[in-house]
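ok posting inputs for the manganese (II) ion job
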Amino acid sequence: MEKKITVLPGDGIGPEVVEQGLKVINAINQSFDHNFELTEEDFGAIAIDKHGDPLPEKTLSACLSSDAIFLGAIGDPKYDNDPTLEVRPEQGLLKLRKSLELFSNIRPIATYDLLNDVSPLKNQLLNDVDFIIFRELTGGIYFGEKHLSDDKSQASDLCEYSEKEITRIAYQAFEAASNRRNKLTLIDKANVLETSRLWRRVIQDISKEYPQIEVDYLFVDNAAMQIVLNPSQFDVILTENMFGDIISDLASVITGSLGMLPSASVGIKSALFEPIHGSFPQAKGLDIANPMAAILSVAMMYEHFGLFEESDMIKRGVRWALNNDIVTKDLSGKNEASACSKVGDVVAWFIEEKGDLQIKREKSKVSLNCII
Ligand code: IPM
Ligand code: MN
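and the output
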């Protein structure tokens, strides 16, 4: 298969984790005979430093003409604590989402038995946790009209949704639920917000086309509690932009490490794949960041292209590394941690060896000693 991919390493640990993802892309493409044209562009704080714009024209046009985008992370502390700054990295991300109409942000939350001990939740709550969040990404309060009064003493952000914006992501979520465990939970605040009542009405209408799917409605405050109290009750969660932002960070810690969670943002023109974690500036350049989320985002990219065997191979490589304690500091506990680059090497190596676990396991110990 031939594809054009724009690679946006971004800021902080972004370039390091992206490098590991690229090792995996190269290993998969060699093994499965695909040809991806990979082009790197500036994005985020680094693009502000170099070009005065977090999303320079050249980067945007590369993204617009590619089949997928692989992003590391953006953000730099020098932009975080000064609300008066007019140019900030996040504006680039929001503009990219809007320009590419990436209206659906998909975040799978699955636990790995091996990581149960690093989860902040009690182990008995972690059995069978496997759900996907569909977060609307190009509407709502993020993109509504913003206002600051002349004397700067009053501000407002408008939250707006149209039936069309809700419908298009709702169908994706219903389709996902029908391929999974037939359960969909809409998270809203319909007891207070008009937009939430519109979401409910649209979802109720669409649900008639999916009689096999059990649809639940939860207010966002209750949902936050339920995600912590009983996370295995969820299958597909559907929600608007800001609730999705908050809920997905909450859900992400269940698994034990933010460093394990990938995401996809799909839309009309292209699709973007990125780890959920941020730019973790304190770890920049230290080769200690967990690259699994970036690597699993690459797996989601292959899945998006319909290349399931490839995606599966990557996921198996990640599990293999976990099973063999080839993990970074965030997951290693008392054991010795591996470097970010080594985790990437090992997953790529697993793929090059075609995941031949039975035969290679013993040999692997030897080879691993050589590369670790
Ligand atoms: C995310 C991030 C972004 C968001 C920020 C960086 C604008 O938190 O992707 O979840 O709020 O959408
Ligand atoms: Mn967020």
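notes: Residues 245, 249 surround manganese (II) ion (ligand 2) (CB under 6 Å). The chain has two domains: 1-103+264-372, 120-255.
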